């Protein structure tokens, strides 16, 4: 079958299944998730075999070690998949929730009901656990989904799709509510992002270049972020212990995540007090510091330093590298962040109430924090239960996107025969 | 100046102004709206002169009477503009609202803060009151806006822009928070819909063809609806009085609005009871009925009838024409609506609790109603205070869009120095 016809068929099947999923009751959806979790545990050796096929092939094709690492499914990884589904089952069902139901002078009662978006497309690389997480979130939120994982994970993803579909069918839900694109043909992605008739939103997960390209070519709306250029700003009145804790954790707790700090801003008034002890911590981790002229002179004796270039203020290192800039207090920090940030997550460390308030209001990012590490920007940490992705856009969902981000609200009107005068 | 450079300049100016508008406090924004309202009243004769220039030219160019009607600014229309601004001023300020602030096990407190979208582009035709309504809503919601009205209203719109900008400046807000595109060059629209760097969302208002074309070519996201193919379904157990009231009002209260009923669905079980008395009402208004075979035989003696063709189920007449179809109860109605509706507004008339509940849940439209006229689907009737437009899309805003639709929610995190373990 031609790839366009194949994707059209998946789309039509998903649209049909989405109608049934939208009506499915909470108990049935939770039962399906429980069945899938059990089946994943039951089939764990089959899953490891399929994953070994993938990793063997990937190794032969010289896949980068980082990707190979994400592709590999361990015994613990399989257990985590199953637990993740049980966690999603334990979350409240967002669908059907009615809010703000109020009487109007005309006599009608107007409110909003939360409903599924319809069909969610997920485009991702390597990690087979995304298949299960995304399927779980979509099932719980009453959506159908089309999953397009990386070709390197195809054996494992096919098996997971089989397990998920069995679980759906066992409780009377349509198998087509979760479909995995069975071809590794790259053209499938191009078809998927233009399937406006059958896909309501796409969540692309992957490198910045991939997502930038998809965004340019897509006709289906996306929930996405390109990168995370996150800042910590240490204000004049920062508490030293909090500043050192937050600035060290935000950079060093994990380097490769999108909520890791990439630029540290320090108010001139406190720079000589904060930077030397902070650098002592970074030195243990051999963090390379790319400093503006002023901070460079303060960190004179630091062994791993360089003078920052303009491009450093716009770079997501995802590595033990940190840009540092001295700013003129709060206004300078907000100006720098609103210019250079990727609007993902930015934090202030301060003891000053007005400055905290202004930072919260004026920094235009998906997550804005006071006295907390940027590493907290995450669906689990925020209490969403799980996340399908993170959005840096302002429309629809912003920040970590959980079940609610896969829903929308329609208006409902309850009357007793009212007519418009 | 080349049109591209001109639009880029408007965009840059809007983006700068939006930063200041986002910080503006409630009192200042309300004061600006009050000043503009006074100035509109003060300058009413100037406004009528400018409008007369527009209408004279439009008449000379042979503008359609309907458009000419919408273009004409009466004394009452000017008063309504000023009142509209005062109403917007009296609405609660959505900006800065913090919701769901909850402690997490890590110690951080996570919530959401409502913030402006940034820069809103409005593309519309004829009606000069849209200039003032849209400016008012954008100012109140802390956004900057670029307004592109129809070339036929350019004199009036230029004067309105001057009045609005004076009002902004008089309270210390930037004039560029509300800019009117001063050229009538159509290329301006093409530039506007691709200005992703400077415009966050576009609200197009106009005919279906215009909006469909803009949607195809736009790179900036849109809040829009193409058309309103709205249904009333009369269920088996409908109360006759409510059914006649709602079905007559939904069609005949106004023909040209997007929330007017275009297709009436009647359950077979009640068709012979409902259709003849309802037709007696329609006959007074000379409504043409396009009937399926079954309803045609029931309405045998109706003078203005035709047999419906397949295309009738997908047509927005905006005229005294109504398609009628007999369906197999609730399931048939939901199937027809989810297939043929434009997902704008659909209503059921029923006394049955389960059927009301199922209709509300299963009909996939922006507004779903029980025992109320579809004509209620409107920002004022829903209590939003005013509307910038209506969205048939599922992402971001759905249904009538008021102040909240011009905002988004960012996450805020309040900590005491917490770090991620």
Write the layout of secondary structure elements.
Two copies of one chain form a homodimer.
Chain A: H1 3-23, H2 26-42, H3 44-60, H4 65-71, H5 75-90, E1 98-103, E2 109-116, E3 119-123, H6 129-140, E4 144-148, H7 154-170, E5 178-180, H8 187-192, E6 201-204, H9 208-217, E7 230-234, H10 240-252, E8 261-267, H11 268-284, E9 288-291, H12 293-298, E10 305-307, E11 321-327, H13 329-340, E12 345-349, H14 353-362, E13 367-372, E14 389-391, E15 399-401, E16 407-418
Parallel strand pairs in A: 3-4, 3-6, 4-5, 7-8, 7-12, 8-11, 9-10, 9-11, 12-13
Antiparallel strand pairs in A: 1-2, 2-16, 14-15
Helix pairs in contact in A: 2-5, 2-7, 3-7, 5-6, 10-11
Could you describe the 3D structure shown?
The structure is a homodimer of 421-residue chains. Chain A contains 14 helices and 16 strands. A seven-stranded parallel beta sheet of chain A has the order 10-9-11-8-7-12-13. Chain A has a four-stranded parallel beta sheet with strand order 5-4-3-6. In chain A, strands 1-2-16 form a three-stranded antiparallel beta sheet, with no helix packed on it. Chain A folds into two domains: 3-223 and 397-414, Aldehyde Dehydrogenase, Chain A, domain 1; 230-381, Aldehyde Dehydrogenase, Chain A, domain 2, CATH 3.40.309. The longest helix of chain A has 21 residues, at 3-23. Chain A is globular, with a radius of gyration of 24 Å. In chain A, α3 (44-60) packs antiparallel against α7 (154-170), α5 (75-90) runs parallel beside α6 and α10 crosses α11. Chain A has 421 residues and is α/β, with parallel strands linked by helices. In chain A, α7 links the parallel β4 (144-148) and β5 (178-180). In chain A, 43% of the residues lie in helices and 20% in strands. β13 of chain A pairs parallel with β16 of chain B, so a sheet runs across the interface.
